[in-house]
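pipeline/complex-builder :: batch 7 item 3
reading input block
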Amino acid sequence: MGIQVQSLGKQYGRAWAVRDLSFEVRPGKVTGFLGPNGAGKSTTMRSIVGLDRPTTGKALIDGVRYARLRAPLREVGTVLDARSAHRSRRAVDHLRTVAATHGFRAARIDEVIGLTGLESAARVRAGKFSLGMGQRLGIAVALLGDPHTLILDEPVNGLDPDGVAWIRGLLGALAAEGRTVFLSSHLLSELALVADHVVVIGRGELIADAPIAELTSDAGRTLEEAYIRLTRDAVEYRGGDVGEPRTGAAGGSGS
Amino acid sequence: MTAVARAVHAEWLKFCSLPSNLVTASAAFALIIGLAAMLLSAQDGDGPVPAPTATELLAGVAWAQFVLAVLAVVLICSEWASGTSRVTFLAVPNRWPVLAGKVAVVGAVGLAAGAAGGGTAFALASATGTDLGDQPALAVRLVAGAGLYLGAIAVLALGIGAIVRDLAGSILAVVVFLWVTPFATTMVPVPEVRELALYLPTSAGLLLLAPDGAAAELGPWGGYAVLLAWTAAALAGAVVALRARDV
């Protein structure tokens, strides 16, 4: 059970965002999903939940393709973007429109508003939300159906320290209840506090799929060191070295 | 069936929770009665401005259709422009019930704006004692037709929006297809082209709002059937596009 990604490939035009990717996310623990910008993390997540149609392979959640789930929000909660509500719609109305698709009762909307600490913002239009408030609203939507699987793309992005600690506790508690929790993040020290296992991809291909304890003992001391070593050859966008400033006239155009 | 009913409910909540949608829908209604009121107040009995005929009374429908077509396009394209498309299609991964929900909403809004606008216009005429020619059957056809026509045009625009997806591109496509093309073809001096142009959605559909006897060989309901065929074709294309493409 959990999430199975099987030989997943996704081509945009002629470029492969993800190629022949296979891994499994097991229930009862938090699995981190790591990789440099452009590695294909979001594409993989979008394919798992049926927003992208894979070019090859497939992804299953508890053995079923997402698109075949009759009440998907009761099985899977997904946060892909901190800006997922119409900017002119009040947060509570956003939740109501989603709840209507599954016939969730009104009391459940109040519950997730309470769970995510959005009580004072429920009647505010989503366009006025900060990034962190948007994340909370996205998490509220994901929790509406009390799902067994959670898929979160950069959920701590924009959250304040309180929010980061809150989501760490939430995800840990959900995994302890036997649920599947799969989240991507670039904040490795934060991820190391909550995740038990990581899947690392680079250039659309699998680099590592291992418990954090194993990576940090084999490849480096911290998760960050292990990650940088693992993805050394897979970074698409790398910043310049700021150690030696170049003077344009002497060096000509940088080589 | 419940999936569709729930999608309709969700789309109705989406429509009602954005004030701009309600303003736009009201504007369509206001255009119809506003123009009717203007025509009724401008008449001066025996003077140079005659009373409007029953069909002239509903001239505002031709303006209201722009408003409703844009409303329909915004309703679908804003899913992608605002980022809600992911949430929408995560909840309804089958995708087509979302389109069905939006069809129900814009169809009903178009129908209501047209029929209520038309009905109010005729009520205004009778309240001001204007003689529209005493043709009750024609009045019924015009009032019902205003609703049916606007509902169909809104749904057609929705289908085009779902296919094109980009907001500006969709509005351009709708304006070109529904209004520029029929106008431009009248300038082509080839009889066959002009004849075919009668089968364009707006040209054919407006036969439903034409005076008795003035309709071409299609007739008012034949013309409306042609408009419905275009609408069905656009929806079929929209379903295929929604199914095939990434969100």
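note: Confidence is low (pLDDT under 50) at residues 248-255 of chain A.
queue -> next item
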